[in-house]
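Practice problem 4.
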């Protein structure tokens, strides 16, 4: 069973955080929730773009937490981020660390917001456990470039990705 640490790098609703943890446990992951918030510093913020530099954020977290005894460390934060020449990013991963930037996933419906976050958390877990982006349009591992793409992709791993992960699907 894969060991997952779910953590926050900004404030995130405690109830939704618990729901995410339970969701991942029901799939078959061994999940620990860290309620401590990892604080980002101003040097990671690009004042010209009014966004966080995703590379600086993930490098900061990677330096401090990659040695923890988990298969996957997934961070959630309500910030707007970018990398390289992209206007924005929704997720970013490096090694066993995956980040979900929820700023652009917001919706007037809490259920829609939570559905989007679940998809992107599963996507990042997949990457941290060795999966690449998937061509299957219904797979949660399908690469996204917009919130519309998040909404249109599936909410779980396709058969091929699930086989590669080799998890006990309790869904």
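Answer key:
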């Amino acid at each position: 069973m894969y060991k997952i640490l779910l953590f926050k790098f900004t404030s995130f609703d405690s109830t939704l955080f618990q729901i995410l943890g339970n969701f991942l446990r029901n799939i078959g992951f061994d999940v620990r929730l860290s309620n401590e918030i990892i604080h980002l510093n101003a040097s990671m913020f690009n004042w010209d773009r009014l966004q966080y530099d995703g590379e600086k954020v993930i490098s900061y977290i990677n330096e401090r937490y990659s040695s923890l005894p988990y298969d996957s460390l997934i961070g959630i934060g309500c910030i707007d981020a970018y990398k390289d020449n992209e206007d924005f990013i929704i997720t970013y991963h490096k090694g066993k660390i995956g980040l979900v930037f929820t700023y652009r996933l917001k919706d007037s419906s809490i259920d829609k917001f939570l559905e989007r976050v679940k998809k992107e958390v599963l996507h990042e877990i997949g990457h941290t456990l060795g999966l690449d982006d998937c061509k299957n349009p219904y797979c949660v591992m399908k690469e996204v470039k917009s919130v519309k793409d998040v909404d249109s992709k599936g909410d779980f791993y396709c058969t091929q990705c699930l086989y590669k992960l080799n998890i006990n699907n309790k869904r």
